[in-house]
Amino acid sequence: MRLDFLVGCILIFLCSAVLANTTYPLDSPQKEAQFQYLLKDLRCLVCQNQDLADSNAELAKDLRNQVYLMVKQGKSDSEIIDYLTDRYGDFILFKPPVKTVTFLLWYGPVLFLLVGFIIFWRTCFRVKARNSA
């Protein structure tokens, strides 16, 4: 009885693993890799810090299906990303492109660090000048 239960549990576990991998069947390993890459590279618009692969939101499921259909049709990464950014904006990308709108996002930390260093250096220089005078 115990052995039957154990064998049953193992079979259920193995069947669920097989079913989990066939949700989005693709023709080739290259398309599978492209699909997985895109799902990891695109952001869920509902769960903002999750990618499409990990999100369980309804919109993420719809976007996964859309990406799957486009990969299955043979579209390239850039075509799929262009379609999604035209529809949802750059926010869907984890790495938005450098534009005038995102300039501060990309270079702001360096600029703030540089300004902070200059203020610190000038403050130290003034204190040193006062102490020596």
From TrEMBL:
Secretion signal span: 1-20
GO BP terms: cytochrome complex assembly
GO cellular component, one term: plasma membrane
Domain CcmH/CycL/Ccl2/NrfF N-terminal per the UniProt entry, residue ranges: 10-129
Keywords attached to this entry: Cytochrome c-type biogenesis, Heme, Iron, Membrane, Metal-binding, Signal, Transmembrane, Transmembrane helix
Transmembrane segments: 103-121
One GO molecular-function entry: metal ion binding
Keyword Ribosomal protein on entry: no
Residue ranges that the Swiss-Prot or TrEMBL entry lists as coiled coil: none
Function, in words: Possible subunit of a heme lyase.
Similarity section: Belongs to the CcmH/CycL/Ccl2/NrfF family.
Name of the protein described by the UniProt record: Cytochrome c-type biogenesis protein
Organism encoding this protein: Legionella wadsworthii
Chain's gene name: ccmH_2
